[in-house]
Design goal:
Layout (H helix, E strand, L loop, with lengths): L3 E12 L2 E12 L3 E6 L5 H8 L7 E6 L2 E2 L4 H7 E5 L10 H11 L4 H15 L14 H12 L6 E5 L7 H16 L3 E6 L10 E6 L2 E6 L1 H7 L5 H15 L1
Parallel strand pairs: 3-8, 3-9, 6-7, 7-8
Antiparallel strand pairs: 1-2, 1-4, 4-5, 9-10
Helix pairs in contact: 3-4, 5-6
Length: about 250
């Protein structure tokens, strides 16, 4: 059996009478690219915050990299990388300053930060931009840099929260090439997105609808199950079914 990087059982987050996440259960294997799909407001970000040790669940159980989300949040934070569309880099710092800063936050030794920074800048083709403020970079380059920084310390799992929002299709494809490379190195990828076409890039996906997990399987199996040509049609059927059940 594959080693499990994430295990969730009936994980729930409630705000008063509102269930942002309602008893979701799933497991993610080590090295897997796991897609966490759903429309805006479906509960994706709330779930990812609990798994990253940033928010306590109301009820349920979960372990991330073997650590308990209630009792070992700091250990979880040291074992993961995290990238958000909304905030990942400091725009008033240069490319190299951002890499150095986050390398230090993640606990990478200073000598290694210098060596890895040089290699990273070369890999991304940002030698000329290394001294520029991140705010001057195009969005696509910011996102590539942010992802590279999120895995700079070689985490066991990286959480990507809507990482490709706002970027053009070509850049999105290049970004996914980077994800494949990270997964091939053994890093588990947990990615949330509302772009249904990105589901095709994942090994397995779950679909969130109104805080609940409406489906979980490979993209191919889900399309067969719903007799759908693409994941947009799968999501449409799931969302329509949820509304009918209300």
């Amino acid at each position: 059996m594959a080693e499990q990087a994430i295990i969730c059982k009936d994980l729930t987050k409630r705000f008063g009478d509102f269930y942002a996440v309602n008893k979701i259960s799933f497991e993610v294997d080590k090295g897997e690219i796991f897609g966490f799909l759903g429309a805006n407001g479906a509960g994706k970000t709330t779930a990812i915050r609990m798994l990253c040790g940033l928010s306590y669940p109301t009820s349920g159980e979960a372990t991330v990299a073997g650590f308990n989300v209630y009792r070992q949040q700091e250990s979880i934070k040291r074992s993961i990388g995290y990238m958000s569309q909304k905030f990942s880099l400091y725009e008033n710092l240069t490319v190299l300053e951002n890499i150095t800063f986050f390398g230090g936050i993640y606990g990478v030794p200073r000598r290694e930060i210098k060596e890895r920074s040089r290699s990273l800048v070369e890999t991304l083709g940002l030698q000329r931009e290394a001294g520029k403020m991140v705010g001057e970079l195009p969005l696509g380059w910011k996102q590539k840099l942010a992802f590279s920084v999120a895995i700079f310390h070689h985490p066991r799992i990286v959480f990507l929260d809507e990482p490709t929002g706002g970027v053009d299709p070509v850049t999105r494809r290049q970004f996914w090439d980077m994800i494949y490379e990270a997964a091939a190195s053994g890093i588990t990828i947990f990615v949330t997105t509302h772009y249904m076409d990105e589901a095709e890039y994942c090994n397995r996906i779950s679909v969130m609808v109104d805080g609940k997990m409406a489906a979980l399987d490979t993209p191919t199996n889900l399309k067969k199950q719903f007799s759908a040509a693409d994941m947009d049609e799968v999501f449409y059927q799931l969302a329509r079914g949820a509304k009918r059940a209300e």
